[in-house]
Amino acid sequence: MIPRRSPAERRRARRRSALRKYGVVLLLLAPWIIGFVVFTAGPMVVSFLWSFTHYDMASPPHWVGLDNYRFMFGLGKINGQRMSDPNYWLSVKNTLFIISFGVPLRVVFSMLTAMLLTRPKRGVNTYRTLFFMPSMAPKVAAALVFVYLLNPTTGPINQLLNLIPGVHGNAPAWFYDPPYAKPALLILGLWGIGDAIVIYLAGLLSVPRELYEAISIEGAGAWQRFRNVTLPMITPVIFFTIVMGVIDGFQYFDQAFIAGNVSSGQTSILGSPQNSLLFYGVNLYQWAFRNFAMGYASALAWVLFAATMAVTAVLLLTSKRWVHYGGGNQ
Amino acid sequence: MKRLLLCLVLIAALALITGCGAKKTSTGPGPASTSHTPVTLTVWHPWTVPSEKNGFANAVAGFHAQYPWITLKIVSFPDSATFDQSLIQAINGGHAPDVAISFGPDYVGQYAHDGLWLDLKPFLARDKVPADQFAPAALTYCQYEGKEVALPVLTDAYGLYYNKAMFAKAGISGPPKTMSELTADAEKLTVRNADGSIKIAGFVPIDTWEELDTTDLARAWGGTYFDTQGKPQLATDPAWASALQWQKQLVDWYGYDNIYKKFFSTYTSSEFSANNAFETGKVAMVFDGEWRTRMIANDGSKVNYGTAPFPVADDHPELYGAGRVGGTITGIPKTSQHPDQAWFLVKYMATDTNFLVQLANNLGNVPTTKASATSPELSMPPQFQTFIDIWNNPKSSYAPPIEAQGSGYANALTTFDQKWLAGKVPDLQAGLQQVDKNVASTLSVSQVP
């Protein structure tokens, strides 16, 4: 006869076995947990604390309360004088510009290109590879190439533009003229939409054939097929590219950093010409590594984090109204 | 952006790992060490080109001959741009070298303010190292807040390069000495294409054109960045407005689109290549450092050139001969395990004539002691003498001025100048007041006690 165990004993035994089970799980997860704590969670906590200090990375952080946040929004005084980040709102404006234009352009162009890529009967893989290839190029290398391609006088693009009657000599100066500098970055962004094209392609190819057949029987034309079948069926892909595009847009840095450096002729100058490429990330870099203000840069990073979270949350909430996940009404 | 985030995360991680625990901190020197116990000194330097690395290793070999009990472990740092940041991390982590050689006078303020490098004054006094063997300009970037944390090991000096053949063709007898002469000569030497665009520019007056900085133009009027209380005074010192007006006048004469959007954009990235605009005859005059003499020779350029101090304002003839200087420095990180022996090396590198001459001949920079600058062993082209003279001029100085918060504050002026030259600034005075405010703001939020 098996001796009966008291409820307390049973609880203890369950706990032991659970501990054994979770112990193994924890052991297996340990490399990730340690990495996460040391390289992500820990530094995040530290940077949050730094955001309330003046810290030059050399001497110990000096507690200043909310001064960094006040400085950011121009709300306070330092040493009795009203001080504010002279470029904060400009960097916000520039970042919103690249998001507002960059994300829709990326969505529309990658969707249209993907639709074209579903058409050819022969050489499909060649076309797909060709369109995908640019997104493999490192951002820095791509930016360097575009600064040369778009050089106002020696760049091949302007040499072609200048051949057009009426344009001669008046083609845009791109990275040397503020109104054209951000559009030049948008062109660079459109060149590298290969990753999004691949996702749209997968989305387009997974739209069930029978839906097209059904709507065709009802006499729908190409536009109605697109409007009533294709578009609703790929809304999850559109939503995904928008969310990722917005997050990337908030963190826009590499291309602007390189373009500003190369076009100004000086590695110490960021955001050139005339701060038109001073995005939020570039401003943050300037404060952290040029002005030795790691405390204020940490505050900037936390506001960026909060803004990104907020916008992503809003997108998620609105998505319920227009994103249709597959599986009909489920 | 990922790189930036990675940098931030790594720095934070390093701070976590290394903590702020107690580190061995050296204090001032006692009597000079007479011990001959074998010691190995670690030395970090930022030279990356093989010929420069070897040049330094060969030149410093003389130290071991003088101090046979001291062995040097020389570490060439792979990226000169991040050298000082990495050094600071190493000092905070307690694994910094015994001796550091840095390209960055911009960090001297932080090294002194935060006590990261030892104050060398007690060592200099103890060993009675004559201060007057260095040019007075050395003090403008080797000390801050009264602490002399570094000594110069070769320097850069900046002046005017001019194309003699073009001068002769235009009938100009010698280099311009005043800013009005510079304007007149620049206009005379400029050659335009049929459509008005510029084929050869007399002088490109744009900030960030190669080595030129608006600070160098303001120097011609005797402009200084900060007042005696340390407040930025670009709006109140009239030199700045004069310099900016001079600059704009010449830019307008060329036409902004011609000189900036077309000419500047074509040649600005060729500064350090054999396609350099001065070396290939696209500009007649240029503001540049002494190293150009070496580059002209190395690139095989046939340009027939002369050098001179940069011109000065017509009403400031007393300033002629001075210019911007500043270059490689050496010092002792506070965590050095052997500060006494480290001092022997620092003193050697800053004052030994043979070492300085050998290194100068290798690198093409200005030797920093009077003895090395006049040594018969120094083998430089005749045009080089201008830069030695600029280094020795008592009015020469480093610019922009050293601050504990680095030189990032100077970007406010650069951006303002870009707008000003593009014609986007309706009121110069109001604009300069805003620059002053921006500089003060930048310095205030980076300030640590």
Blueprint of the fold:
The complex is a heterodimer of chains A (330) and B (449).
Chain A lengths: L6 H44 L2 E2 L7 E2 L3 H7 L3 E2 L2 E2 L5 H30 L6 H9 L6 H11 L6 H6 L16 H14 L2 H12 L3 H9 L4 H12 L1 H16 L3 H11 L15 H11 L3 H29 L8
Antiparallel strand pairs in A: 1-2, 3-4
Helix pairs in contact in A: 1-14, 2-14, 3-7, 3-8, 3-11, 3-13, 5-12, 8-11, 11-14, 13-14
Chain B lengths: L1 H17 L20 E7 L4 H17 L3 E7 L6 H11 L5 E4 L5 H6 L7 H6 L12 H4 E2 L2 E2 L2 E2 L5 E6 H7 L8 H11 L1 E2 L5 E6 L10 H6 L18 H17 L1 H12 L15 E7 L1 H8 L6 E4 L20 E3 L7 H13 L1 H11 L6 H4 L11 H8 L18 H11 L6 H18 L4
Parallel strand pairs in B: 1-2, 1-3, 9-10
Antiparallel strand pairs in B: 3-12, 4-5, 6-12, 7-10, 7-11, 8-9
Helix pairs in contact in B: 2-14, 10-11, 17-18
Number of domains of chain A: 2
Low-confidence stretches of chain B: 16-26
Write out the CATH superfamily name of the largest domain in chain A. Answer: MetI-like
The helix-strand sequence of chain B is HEHEHEHHHEEEEHHEEHHHEHEEHHHHHH
Overall mean pLDDT of chain B: 92
The figure for the number of domains of chain B is 2
Provide key terms for this protein.
heterodimer, A: 330 residues, mainly alpha, MetI-like fold, 2 domains, two-stranded antiparallel sheet, 4 strands, B: 449 residues, alpha/beta, D-Maltodextrin-Binding Protein, domain 2, five-stranded mixed beta sheet, 12 strands, 42% helix, globular
